[in-house]
Every structure is written in C-alpha cells, then in structure tokens.
Amino acid sequence: MYGVKKMSIVKLPKMKRKMIEELLKNQVICRIAFRGEDYPYMAPFQYAYINGNLYFHFTRYGKKMKLIEHDNRVAVEIETYKPDLHQYCFVVFRGELEVVGDPNERGKAINRMAEVGSKSLSTNFLAAHGLKKSDGWQALNPEKPLNIVKLKNIVETIALGSPDGE
Questions:
Q1: Can you tell me the distance from the alpha carbon of 86 to that of 83, in angstroms, rounded to the nearest whole number?
Q2: Which of 35, 80, 86, 97 has the most CB atoms lying inside 10 A of its own CB?
Q3: Closest CA to 140 of 42, 55, 67, 66
Q4: How many Å is the maximal CA-CA distance in the chain?
Q5: Could you tell me how far CA 4 lies from the centroid of its own chain?
Q6: What is the tens place of the pLDDT at every residue in 4-19?
Q7: Predicted local distance difference test score (pLDDT) of residue 3
Q8: 3-state SS, residue 10
Q9: Is pLDDT above 60 for 165?
Q10: pTM above 0.85, yes or no
Q11: Do the Cβ atoms of 67 and 35 come closer than 8 Å?
C-alpha cells in the first residue's frame, strides 16, 4: 500500500510481583469468566485474598455452581484505575475453581470477606451473597452453609499496567 505509514506498537508494561500483591490486597471485587454453554458467562464477585490464595463465595442459586461442576476452568480479572485512566493496571489469572472442604480454611475466607465487606462495601452488596441488607455484614459467617471456592492450578498470569505506572 502506498502512502500508508507503518504504526509502531506500544505494549503495556508487565507488572512486578510486588505491584500484583498490592493490587490483590487493596481491591475487593473481581470478575470471573466461566465457560458457558453457548457463550462465556462473566460476573463480578467479592473475593478474599489470604496467604496468596483467592477465595470466592458462590450462592446456592444461579448458574455458577453448575458451570464449575461442568468445567471448573475460569479466568479471574482484578483491576484498578483512576477515573481519567492516567493510571491503571489489571491482573488476569487462568486456573481452576475448587470447592473448599476444609472447615477452617472455609471459615477464614468467610470471615475475611465479612471483615473487608463491613469496612469497604455497602450493606446493599449483601444481596450478592444471598443475604438481607438488614442483617448486616455479621450475617456473612462460617455457621451458614455457604459455598466457598478457591482458585487453584493457575496456568497463566497476565499482569499489565499503564506506562511508567503514572
């Protein structure tokens, strides 16, 4: 083609491990993409980050549990950005979800979600956990029969951010 200039490609810089850790510790909401029947299914979730592991609560209603029973491979995305996007970063983990069977591990994840939720999230968000707003964050507790799942067997991590981190 005549007269067409070749464009140079600018790639987003990779995040360093320390930046990834900060992102995971400072955010509370992620998006999980599941392998749906005809199309991918994506939904937002509160997560708990404990000892390098990501935990999620799945309600007993809805399609998420059926989806991971059929195929537990997912992509989990966590991001942060400034409103004008002068600074942004995201991490995507590709791995598998597994139901947490250990009561102590399950309890720690639930307690962390309740602790963080009570400090950072509206009680309106309790509906996403299948709980009443009026019950408050203490309603999210290990005594309830809550499904807790954990991201395991991570096969790929993509972590990129704005140029110069500014």
A1: 8
A2: 97
A3: 55
A4: 70
A5: 42
A6: 777 777 778 788 899 9
A7: 66
A8: coil
A9: no
A10: yes
A11: yes
> What is the token pair recorded at 162?
């704005």
What are the boundaries of each domain within the chain?
17-106+149-165
Residues with Cβ within 8 Å of 64's Cβ and at least 6 positions away in sequence, in order, are 34, 41, 43, 58
Supply the DSSP string of 47-78, one letter for each residue.
Answer: EEEETTEEEEEE-SSSSHHHHHHH--EEEEEE
For the CA atoms of 63, 64, 70, 74, the dihedral, rounded to the nearest 10 degrees, stands at: 140
Tell me if residue 106 falls in helix, strand or coil.
helix
Q: What is the pLDDT of residues 116-162, one digit of tens each?
A: 999 999 999 999 898 999 999 999 999 988 899 999 999 999 998 88
Lookup: tokens for 134: 């009026």
Write out pLDDT tens, residues 52-92: 999 999 887 778 888 888 899 999 999 988 788 888 889 99
Q: Is the backbone of residue 81 left (phi > 0), alpha (psi -120 to 50) or beta?
A: beta
Indicate the residue type of 86. Answer: H
Radius of gyration of the chain (CA): 18
Query: Do the Cβ atoms of 36 and 67 come closer than 8 Å?
Result: yes
Residue type, 32: I
